[in-house]
Amino acid sequence: MSEGVERIAGLCDSPDTHADVWENSTAEVPAASRDQPYFVFPRGRVLYRQSDGRFIVYMDRALFARGAKAAIRAFFALGDESIVWRADPHYITDPDELDRLFSD
Questions:
Q1: Confidence band of 104 (pLDDT split at 50, 70, 90)
Q2: Can you give the pTM of this predicted structure?
């Protein structure tokens, strides 16, 4: 948490933006996906709640599968840490859900 930024009282966030991380990532990305903008992929945000020492992961509903959660734990080195998993409309990638979100 030493590199975190407290933008909201009690919540520690990364100082990085999604776009910066995507553009500078050294992760292996399939060739067909390399030229795609980051916002077409299911994504989310990991915050640390200082009051109870728990992580809160806000993410696209597509990532709620057990395998995706395990990959998120591994990538952020969360191990056995206590995590609250939450969906959030900021991270929706499903075209039908986006249409409903922005329709009158």
A1: low
A2: 0.73
